[in-house]
Write a structure and sequence with these properties.
About 45% of the residues lie in helices and about 5% in strands. The protein has 19 helices and seven strands. The longest helix is centred in the N-terminal third of the chain and has 22 residues, at about 95-115. This is Endoglucanase.
Length: about 500
């Protein structure tokens, strides 16, 4: 059964799941210890090994995963083996994958010292992704943005190791543009060039050169990949915010990577377009930060590079909108204290917003400033760090359910996550091939998943309350994604060092 087809059953399955929970094996124990940020950080990075596609290295630590999708790109005459499956399915979606790379790189750039011994694993997780992006962008004016027919994939519940679904390759080019995915890919490559600059300068040079080429393609041939590819990317990762934010985001990262202002005009133009869109929106400004919308991240990134009055105003407007007592608060908080901003994968906003709060707070501390909210109310940067800390602690178990939303961390965590590889028996225990529908009994059972996808952070509570249903029928709550974990890497590194 597929992720997109079972969401309607979430509420209906609640009684069945709760009844079954009384008799099934449980990871529950009394109480929850204080956060072990070091353990959570290690597991947060280990998760990426469970999402790997392609030929796995000898250093693979999640050994229940095996080689998969080795012939990706064959239909287009290119080698596209590698990269990451974005979530609980077996499609490689290039748009959220690139965003994951940008945030992994930003976590390394901002918190390399705090990462300590986990820096090597962070570099490894990022390089697995950027090696793939280099393959996907090897041809001029062309990006291979997706591998896998999403409808074929979502109609099956099978392991990536022996999937028989269509591995169709999708691309954008000069006649079918995709400026948002080009801008995000350029951002990922540029940010990664900074992250690898000291450890592998030759690789960093290659990444930066490719970032410039990819950005120029996206800027020259402007248009949305949602229009060019239609139903193959929508509604899965359709771009709802427009592509100007990605072009500005890519330009901002290129300015930082090149230590120049050569892309400044592109940034200014993109921000003007975003501001016009906000003014035309009758509902007023709504802040988001994730694979689709980069606006808040742009203002924070620009402000940490160069003091500019307009960027400062917009960055402050954003962070003030997240403070629980602020008059301009634009998000809700659950009774237990979790940021609530979407009925989709809410934890994406939790980790993304918290990361931006922390980065901005550190910047304000470094320049000896304060934040001004609500008609000249002065807010210390420590208040932003406190909010970010509260969100991470909630995620790790300090919540009304006494439940960690990271698989394998703490005494109680989700047991039935919406993830094919985790649900199904591994190749070690079931070497015989499993076909499209062979996995349905494992999906429908109320028994825990067979394989622990350690470090996977699920979508979590998403209805404005602290309610959580541990059920595969609720992918918005129980499906993990690569882009939820990426900003969490930096957060966990910081709190591990500074508490």
């Amino acid at each position: 059964m597929a992720a997109k087809r079972v969401m309607f059953s979430c509420v209906f399955s609640m009684l069945v799941a709760l009844t079954a929970a009384a008799t099934m094996p449980s990871a529950v124990a009394d109480g929850e210890p204080p956060p072990d940020y070091a353990d959570a950080l290690s597991k947060c990075l280990l998760f990426y090994e469970g999402q790997r596609s392609g030929k796995l290295p000898p250093t693979q630590r999640l050994t229940w995963r095996k080689d998969s999708a080795l012939n990706d790109g064959q239909d287009a005459g290119v080698d596209l083996a590698g990269g990451y499956y974005d979530a609980g399915d077996n499609v490689k979606f290039g748009f959220p994958m690139a965003y994951t790379g940008t945030l992994l790189a930003w976590s390394i750039i901002e918190f390399s010292e705090e990462l300590g011994p986990e820096l090597a694993h962070a570099h490894e997780a990022l390089r697995w992704l950027t090696d793939y992006l280099l393959k996907a962008t090897a041809q001029p004016n062309r990006i291979f943005v997706q591998v896998g027919d999403p409808y074929s994939d979502h109609n099956c519940w099978e392991r990536p190791e022996d999937m028989d679904t269509l591995r169709t390759t999708y691309q954008v080019n000069d006649t079918h543009p995709g400026s948002e995915v080009a801008g995000e890919t350029a951002a990922a490559l540029a940010a990664a060039s900074i992250a690898f600059r000291s450890s592998d300068p030759a690789y960093a040079d290659e990444l930066l050169s490719r970032a410039e080429t990819v950005y120029n393609f996206g800027h020259t041939y402007q248009g949305s990949y949602g229009t060019s590819l239609g139903k193959w990317v929508c509604p899965f990762y359709c771009d709802y915010s427009g592509y100007q934010d990605e072009l500005s985001w890519g330009a901002a990262w290129l300015n930082r990577a090149t230590n120049s202002s050569q892309y400044q005009n592109h940034i200014v133009h993109g921000i003007q377009q975003m501001q016009m869109k906000t003014q035309l929106d009758d509902t007023g400004r709504e802040w988001f930060f994730g694979w689709d919308n980069k606006e808040a991240g742009i203002y924070i990134l620009l402000e940490t590079q160069k003091n500019d009055s307009e960027n400062s105003r917009l960055a402050e407007e954003f962070v003030c909108s997240l403070l629980p007592q602020s008059l301009s608060k634009s998000v809700e908080y659950t009774p237990g204290g979790l940021i609530y901003n979407t009925q989709g994968c809410n934890m994406q906003d939790v980790t993304g917003f918290s990361f931006l709060l922390l980065v901005y707070a550190r910047h304000i501390i470094n320049v000896g400033g304060t934040i001004t909210c609500d008609n000249n109310v002065q807010v210390p940067p420590s208040a932003l760090i406190d909010v970010a800390r509260s969100q991470v602690k909630y995620l790790l178990g300090d919540n009304p359910n006494n439940m960690s939303y990271m698989v394998g961390y703490g005494a109680k965590f989700p047991q039935m996550i919406h993830h094919r590889g985790s649900t199904l028996p591994s190749m070690d225990t079931h070497p015989e091939r499993m076909f499209c529908r062979d996995g349905e009994p494992y999906f429908n059972t109320t028994a825990p998943n067979l394989n622990l996808l350690i470090g996977a952070v699920v979508g979590g509570p998403n209805d404005g309350t602290d309610n959580f249903l541990d059920s595969r029928y609720c992918p918005n709550q129980t499906e993990p994604t690569t882009y939820v974990n990426a900003p969490l890497v930096g957060l966990l590194a910081y709190f591990n060092k500074h508490g």
